[in-house]
Amino acid sequence: MEDFLNQLRRVNAARWEAWSEGRGEDPLFQSNEFGGEAGEVMNVVKKLEREARGWRGSRDTVEHLGDEIADAIICLDSLARSYKIDLKEAVIRKFNATSDKNDFPHKLTSEGGQKNPLTMVEDQFFAEQVPARAPFYELEQPIMGCWNVTEDINTLFVHVIEAAVGKLDNDEIANTLLGLKNLYDMKFQQMFNKYEELLKKQAGR
Ligand SMILES: [Mg+2]
Known about the structure:
Number of domains: 2
CATH topology of the largest domain: Helix Hairpins
Strand content: under 5%
Structural class: mainly alpha
CATH architecture of the largest domain: Orthogonal Bundle
Distance between the termini: 32 Å
Bound molecules: magnesium ion
Helix content: over 70%
Largest sheet: none
């Protein structure tokens, strides 16, 4: 079956040819057209937000917003076509580069087309080993939270050695250590719960 973006490119090109009466690609017009449609999207959002805030003025609909977003995508396809940009490849490449740059595991793949060998190896690995990829970056926050234990111990250390020489008795030190132990028991438990939750998600349960 024909890929949707390929269909958009093919039919949109044919309509452009008819509409412009054979004038050919016109990126200056098309970029201006996209700017106009982007403004129309923003104008509908402005009216929807105005209503959401209970402010006076004209109203609009989500259905109309869908129309304007569609117009913007159609214009972008025309503009990309003028510069012979493969929209699908460009979106996949840029989306994945942004994920890599910001440490997200979310990646797009080009179904049906020739994949690069690394992507194929990765896809095969995850197909065999990991039925559904769990977002393990969600562990980052709890791990960093547990790491705070070193800073907390250092605070106590500095207090004992420098700030309060002879003023902190063994009971106070013991109580502080016990508090730290209980707090970090909870933090590690919460991190482990998160880890279990991600494992279940990964196994598709
Ligand atoms: Mg429009």
